[in-house]
Design a protein that fits this description.
Four copies of one chain form a homotetramer. Chain A contains nine helices and no strands. The first copy, chain A, is an all-alpha fold. The first copy, chain A, has two domains: 56 residues, Homeodomain-like (Arc Repressor Mutant, subunit A, Orthogonal Bundle), CATH 1.10.10.60; 140 residues, Tetracycline Repressor, domain 2 (Orthogonal Bundle). Chain A is globular. Chains A and B meet through helix 1, helix 6, helix 7, helix 8 and helix 9 of A and helix 6, helix 7, helix 8 and helix 9 of B. Chain B binds a DNA duplex through helix 1 and helix 3.
Chain lengths: 199, 199, 199, 199
DNA sequence: CATGAATGAGTTTTCATTCAT
DNA sequence: AATGAATGAAAACTCATTCAT
């Protein structure tokens, strides 16, 4: 085996993993998180069920990995936004509209909470999810603080404001689950406005 | 015909049903919604597993009934608040603090979303849940409108504001699920403040 | 209690029993014999399930009684026919057409065979059913013998002919079960003709 | 893609299916059709209960497949007999004696009728069973017609005669179920004779 | 790495029968 | 006699995981 091939194999493996994970989210969005079976995911990914276990040790590992990547990606996205030279209100708008546009985001959101609540998921997993959630609040809190310095964001503990901001978006995300939808519009600008001083 | 007191039987039955349902919520709060078995609920309620089926046709019916009662109770609570002679900001505060204090409320919230997402739950159930959710927005919207007339609540479509308010509270509720908790305080007054004009 | 009342009670009881039994056959014809539950029968009879056990010791007893009465009634019917002053060919015709006209007769027929085959039914029950079946062959065999004396019925062991005659009718009865039916006419005269010498 | 021999796998699967089906008939013949459980069949076939569901979606599917194969095999058998160069009376004799010699044939017969009667079995299944039954009458009807041309079979609609012939054999088959048996001999020659003109 | 057959524990559901009222 | 709640054993079915090929 040349090192070239080893590298290629690893790439292939990574592609496969990403493919399986996105298929998992996809099928979770259709079947409902609680009732997705290994078989469902394997079929959706076009992979044999036995082969799934070459990529993941268990079903729980799939969920854990899904969460890790989802939360990490989101964290990076928010961090990048936070470091931009724009004004705070614009940054909040970007986060808000981007998030709400993402299809399947509600699936991630439900998955996060399912993972945290299920006795099945290990204490360790729950701790990690909560830790990442909390960490991901920091960039948003930084934006809130920036906004307060700019005189546009309401006063109050920036971390608390960030918490409310993210919770609000998550709450709305859940309302966008497929099936029947709540017949009330969602306007990112209006959401951001709640956190601003000027009416 | 019957040597038994029919009315008393019906009362007993209702009491039993309520008891089973609250046991169900209780155990769901501990075990996690996805993994509650009929056996868990039966044990928690101190009822034999076979007997459960005298009160509910299926596990799904338990969930459906739980949702119906939970949403109806909440709707009545909000309607009563809305009709009080208090100011809007005070009403919002009452809703917010009451809701966040309720133990197990996160369980209802997750259950609502689980029900709406699972392919298992019928289209009919999903429709009903969404309809009740939407109906329950109205009293909150009325409060928003009142607040706008009083000059304290921010401008904007009252229904939209109500939607945000409820979504925010639901989003926060989810963060209060047992296990590891997010280390950020939740202050009802601060939440309400987001919807007010005066900083 | 006057003896008058006791007698009346017994009459009432008998009426009730007959009513339950006919409801049982009725519902077996709809639900299928294998899947009739005590509850089904009780509901069909408009009797509470607990009350069923005042009239029958068990579900098996219902089946046993159903068989006993069905076979006894049939036996009496055939015996009466056999003793009539008519010619054998006419007697055969009467048996054949009467039987095939009876609604639900297929249910009895299947029930007989189900009872004889199921390991559930006791050895004793199976013996009784077979014994009654065999006994009920005798009057038909007598008719066959009469017919042979009259020169109209084919030669051969009368008991064997009777066995074929009854088996043929039972086989046809099974084809008349509800649902889709075999699109071939059944003519009693043609059936009888099979057992006659003259074409 | 696959390091396994796909064709061989399919062959193995077919063998397994046939094995399970014959085990099912076997155990039905012992336990009685109504009370055969998945577990019984699995044990009889030496297969784990979970594995049964790799081959059949449900218990009903097993019954449906059993019927399909049984009726198809019988149809082929009869068709082959019909095309032989022999005389009609000899063909009828072959069908009759072969059928009555087949062990477990009564089990198929009862199964057919059980399937047609049970509300459990779908309308579709009942239609199929009846259709196959009707189709299988045709070769027998052809034999009857041949016999009429040969001057040995009684006059009358050949299809109707075939219907009677098959019903008679089925009726007799049911009498051969295990347990107590009717103490009357069954002679294929005598049965065929019923359909012949010459005494 | 790839496949899908095999396992067995676990889940929901049914049902004959008993029992307190 | 009448009712229907209660029980528990058993049935059908599911599914994560392992393993031979």
């Amino acid at each position: 085996m040349s090192p070239r091939n080893v590298e290629k194999d690893l790439q292939k493996r990574e592609i496969r993993i990403v493919h399986i994970l996105s298929s998992a989210i996809e099928v979770m969005a259709v079947k409902g998180i609680g009732s997705v079976s290994m078989n469902d995911i394997a079929s959706a990914a076009g992979v044999s069920i036995g082969n799934m276990y070459h990529y993941f040790k268990s079903k729980d590992e799939i969920f854990a990995e899904l969460l890790r990547r989802g939360q990490t990606d989101y964290g990076e996205f928010v961090a990048i936004i936070a470091q931009k030279p724009d004004r705070a209100r614009e940054k909040l708008y970007m986060i808000c509209s981007t998030w709400l546009q993402m299809t399947n985001h509600w699936a991630y959101t439900i998955l996060i909470h399912t993972a945290r609540m299920s006795e099945t998921s290990s204490e360790e997993l729950r701790r990690q999810v909560t830790e990442r959630f909390t960490n991901n609040l920091s960039p948003v809190a930084a934006i809130m603080e920036q906004g307060q310095r700019e005189g546009e964001v309401k006063t109050g503990d920036p971390m608390e404001l960030a918490f409310y901001f993210v919770s609000l978006i998550q709450g709305l995300t859940l309302q966008r689950a497929p099936g029947v939808e709540v017949p009330v519009g969602i306007e990112p600008a209006d959401i951001v406005r709640l956190f601003l001083t000027a009416a």
